[in-house]
Amino acid sequence: MAKVELNSPAPQFTLLDFNENSVSLSDFANRKNVLVVFNRGFI
Question: Strand, helix or coil at 16?
Answer without folding.
Answer: strand
